[in-house]
Amino acid sequence: MVWVTADAPTKVELDSCVRCGLCLPHCPTFRLTGDETASPRGRLAAMSLVANGDEQVDAVFADVMGLCLQCRACEVVCPSLVPFGRAMEGARAEIATQLSLPGRKFRHFLLGKVLGMRFLVRLGSLGIAIAQRSGLSRIAFGPLKRLAGLRRLPILTGRYSGNVWESMGPTRGTVALLTGCVMEPWFSAVHNATVELLRRGGYRVEAPEGQTCCGALAAHDGAAVLAKRLAARNISAFDGYEMVVANSAGCGAHLKDYKNWGGEAVSKATRDIVEVVAEILDTGDLPELSLNGKQVAIQDPCHLRYAQRIIEEPRRILRAAGYEIVEIDSEGWCCGAAGTYTLTHPDMSEELGKRKANQVRETGAILVASANPGCELQLRSHLGSDYRIAHPIELYRDALRASDEKAVLK
To answer: Does residue 168 sit in the same domain as residue 205?
Structure first.
């Protein structure tokens, strides 16, 4: 055995792959390259070679593991239920421990340290807001052009942690809101819609102090030690809550995987906001709204569709808002955002981003629903300002407010 960390892929995980190949047609990198090493089966075979001592953790192994998007589409079709996402995180943790690769330490500092420090995140957000207003963001190039596609940020961002919002009407319970790292300053409109709909649905909402970045980006990049520290802070902050709500698909998927990081209770308590709002709609505590005749193209974030196995709920919410849903991709390919993938593999990310944007253009819809911030950034950078990309709950909340205004006018 040449693994040196406790996070490495286990023999049980690796031996569970029977090399059937059912994953191959569902893997974007294999489909684009045709290379066996760019498939889940090939990557698991490489991990097994290292685990058996036949190969080493070297630059070639790092390249094979690094090309993976970690979309987890393979997990859905795997008859052996291989926990590929867990194994990949373990393999990358080994790479981070055993190899000194250019830029990795700095990237891990950003993902595991800076994103966990709210002051620095807010300071960076202030810099982006100034760049947006000065026009500097228009000359962004390479991976930075994704930041140019950010929603216009306020100079001073609101603070959610520590706040409590009482329910509107009879209270069905209390939920904890994951405020996250970039969600708070960059996607505050999603937080606003989340709190409003939960309150209307009868929930008291708390955003506990002490919480931090969920640690997904750090874990996916192999910064296991830093990811565990972030997870430990959140496990402590969310202790005792029966429901923890996340409104970023990637964050929700990672919280549900906290069972691998010592947080079984938080893992069981975590719900994505689209799950909760869909349930409230089914009880009748949020209304079904009349058709407005508008089309919305729906994009399925990988960590919603594959990691959390949530497909119908965002569609349920959009139908309740009165939208005509246009499907853009029956195969559910990754958009290429994939956390830091635009930095580590810009060419592959660009190819997948263009593919997804073209699928949207072919529908003729100029409104796109996406339940993950990374996917939204990727879509914005490829579609431009003629398209609106928003979270499904934002679209429902907007339709609900419009309905309220009509009722008042009558």
So the answer is: yes
